Amino acid sequence: MSDPLAALARLPGVSEAVDAAREAVDRLYRHRVLRRASPAVSTESSLRGARASAAIEGADVPLDALRRDEAHDPVVQGALRASAELGRLGPTWRKAPRQVLARLHTVAAAGLTGQEALGRPRTADAAPDPLGLGAAPSAEETAARMERLIWLMDGATKAAPALVLAAVVHAELAVLRPFGTADGVVARAAERLTLVEYGLDPKSLVAVEVGHLELPYAEGLRAYLSGTPEGVAQWIQQCASAVSLGVREAVAICEAMQRG
């Protein structure tokens, strides 16, 4: 069977965007600060990524407020918990992605929905639409598409770049809204986890969420939703740009640490 993502990797403009993002990550990994402070850079990148992910959901708080533990918005707290959970979930992501997604939702949606709904797929056809993407697919269609996504995560794709897989994982979770709450936070956490576990950013240094905040996020997802080759390519290229912007954020962290 042919690789289901290989065709996406060959769409016009995608290969060039993926290569540019990979080169940016490679340059970041050569930064001298990372010889001694890689864990600290990863921690700071995760904090900035969580802040950006919450901001995309409309909960925009200053970074200093997070450092002082003064941001009590449940969306912000959920994004912080999801970010903190990624390091523990990495080894399970390839083997049991459904389990990881359930856990991410459990920590991201706490305080936003009832205890009985945490980690459980939605059964209602309707789902909130915070980004103005339009009605979500029905619960039945969502379940079917999630099966397809899990199949991809379970090893159906072999040769496609990690960034292409991450872009598809992110978009499917964001547009399907499989849980009905905190789906955007889960989607962006899953993208970052894919970039880490599939080898593009193994040390989790790239603040890709910051990149998404700087780009026309909803517009990119609408392009993906169109289902056209051009629309899907636009979204993957946007994810590649988000990685490059996330690299820029990580370099800024490294430079600040170097200055002391």
Automatic annotation (TrEMBL):
Stretches of Low complexity bias are at 124-137
Q: Per the database record, which ranges form the Fido domain?
A: 96-238
PROSITE patterns hit by this protein? FIDO (PS51459)
In residue numbers, the region (Disordered) covers 118-138
Q: Output the InterPro entries linked to this UniProt entry.
A: Fido (IPR003812), Fido-like_dom_sf (IPR036597)
Give the protein name, as stated in the record.
Fic family protein
